[in-house]
Amino acid sequence: MQNFKEDNTARRYKAYVSSMGTTQLHLRNPYIVAWWSAAFPGFGHLLLSKYVRGYLLFMWEVVVNLNANVNLAMVYSFQGKVALAADVLNTRWLLAYIPVYIFGIWDSYRTTVDLNKVYLLAERENHRFNTFLMGALEINYLDKRNPRMSVVWSLLMPGLGQLYIHRVATAAFVIVWSVLFFYFSRELEALSLLFVGRIAESTSVLNPEWLLFLPSLYGFAVYDAYVNTVENNKLFDSEQKRYLQSLYQQLRVRIGKGTGENI
User: Fold this and answer.
1) How far is CA 185 from the centre of its chain?
2) pTM for this structure?
3) For a FRET experiment, which of 16, 36, 162, 204 has its CA 20 to 30 Å from that of 242?
């Protein structure tokens, strides 16, 4: 099989199919990407398939947030205990937190704008890219999948929607951190107590610092899985159209007007 990644006749490619998933360029709203970086540093970069940068910012957020007591201060603020919220903040960590947080928002916005320009150029060039990969560990190929199923699986467990569309790197990362957040927040333990009617005990076992990480993780898992399923389907249609045009539109038939005869 020809490896189109190594074909240097194009300056830009719209997509690349690998054993870890399908990486592709498509138009994105820079404000939405920046918003996800604001919701949780690293998420905006993961949406752009900038995995290393996204992983680093995500882990930085978890470590520094917990040491600076940011989530705990937010809990106290929600309860109206503003003075207590200010007291629990650890300024030694907080002052290191703020610059990186702002950088994540700015860099994801800037990168989105740049990648949108690259996509327009790649779309104009419309060069061939690999659509099927068979390796010793994985098989990956362009295919159409149901966006609703991506949402359903992501709601059941963050990361399963990414596995459904073969975004293995993102899926593994999201699943591992989901397990950690579930464990340290004790949310599943609280749910089991709630189901048997022990409401007060269910509330008391929760760890709010870790619990506040979960809404952002769930939201990102659903959004990322849905958007990438839709864009993968568009990519499949686009590649299929290009293939059929190159294979069949070379055979042109002229129809003589008024005669009904092929010439």
Assistant:
1) 23
2) 0.86
3) 162
- Tokens 């999201």 found at: 174
Give dist(CA 44, CA 35) in Å, integer: 8
Q: How many CA atoms lie within 13 A of 157 on its CB side?
A: 14
Give alpha helix (H) positions in 69-212.
Answer: 70-78, 82-88, 91-125, 147-156, 160-164, 168-185, 187-195, 199-204, 208-211
Q: At 131, which amino acid appears? A: T
Single-letter code of the amino acid located at 79: Q
Rounded-to-integer distance, Cα 42 and Cα 236, Å = 28
Helix axes 91-125, 30-39, angle to 10 degrees: 150
User: What is the tens place of the pLDDT at every residue in 212-245?
Assistant: 999 999 999 999 999 999 999 999 998 888 888 7
pLDDT of 172-214, one tens digit each? 999 999 999 999 998 888 888 888 888 888 888 889 889 999 9
Q: Which two tokens stand for residue 1?
A: 């099989």
Name every residue whose Cβ is closer than 8 Å to that of residue 223 and which is 6 or more positions away in sequence. Answer: 36, 47
Distance CA 60, CA 69 (A): 14
Task: Answer yes or no: are the C-beta atoms of 5 and 16 closer than 8 Å.
Answer: yes
